[in-house]
Design goal:
The complex is a heterodimer of chains A (about 110) and B (about 110). In chain A, strands 2, 4, 5, 9, 10 and 11 form a 6-stranded mixed sheet that branches. Chain A is built from no helices and 11 strands. In chain A, a hairpin with a 2-residue loop joins strand 6 and strand 7. By secondary structure, chain B is an all-beta fold. Chain B has no helices and 11 strands. The chains are: A mainly beta (about 110), B mainly beta (about 110). Chains A and B meet through strand 4, strand 5, strand 9 and strand 10 of A and strand 5, strand 9 and strand 10 of B.
Chain lengths: ~110, ~110
């Protein structure tokens, strides 16, 4: 994930909002993704956003894209213990070409 | 009804052995992938096949050989296993048009 960067850890209190940030370098990225990986499991696609969008909301999840700054964020409202996982930011092109993943942000929830 | 299934889930083997990991998807997707996840959770693409044709082959040692007998299957064969091959290997499939991947649950390979 050398061209998709994320901070490694985030700790939030249960019930608060979590904001996970990501930056990328390739401005030709057409799609940007957020995946969730729980322990011992594969990656689950949470949401994705087209590069011509600024925001996408899906229940507790809000994705914000600042294309000028190449910055993507994922906000999880009312964070619950079940949200504990590693969250991966990723970028891809317009076809089924490869998706480049960030190094993942480990979200931990404290009571 | 598992969408992308990999076998085995765990694989422990000695250095120098040859092993295979199998992957099958029942989603009707045209494209399948192998990714390697190291101990720091970093994910790196290895191979991609589209309708049985190799389309992505990253810088992977030629001890790794993918095989796609049909578009629903993508297997990974590894010869002469080395300690550094220890990792979790994920299979994934995609319908294309940027709609992301569906991942299998991974195969944890440990080389001793």
């Amino acid at each position: 994930g050398e061209d998709v960067e994320q901070s490694l850890f985030l700790s939030v209190r249960e019930g608060d909002s979590s904001v996970i940030n990501c930056t990328y370098t390739d401005s030709s990225s057409t799609y940007l993704y957020w995946y969730k990986q729980e322990p011992g499991a594969g990656l689950q696609l949470l949401t994705y956003i087209f590069s011509n969008m600024d925001m996408k909301q899906d229940q507790r999840l809000t994705v914000l894209l600042n294309k000028k700054d190449k910055h993507l964020s994922l906000r999880i409202a009312d964070t619950q213990t079940g949200d504990s996982a590693i969250y991966f930011c990723a970028r891809g092109g317009s076809s089924a070409s490869k998706i480049i993943f960030g190094s993942g942000t480990r979200l931990s929830i404290r009571p | 009804d598992t969408a992308v299934s990999q076998t085995p889930k765990y694989l422990v083997t000695q250095m120098g052995n040859d092993k295979s990991i199998k992957c099958e998807q029942n989603l009707g997707h045209d494209t399948m992938y192998w990714y390697k996840q190291d101990s720091k959770k970093f994910l790196k693409i290895m191979f991609s096949y589209n309708n049985k044709e190799l389309i992505i082959n990253e810088t992977v040692p030629n001890r790794f050989s993918p095989k796609s007998p049909d578009k629903a299957h993508l297997n990974l064969h590894i010869n002469s296993l080395e300690l550094g091959d220890s990792a979790v290997y994920f299979c994934a499939s995609s319908p294309g048009q940027g709609r992301g991947y569906t991942f299998g649950s991974g195969t944890r390979l440990t080389v001793v």
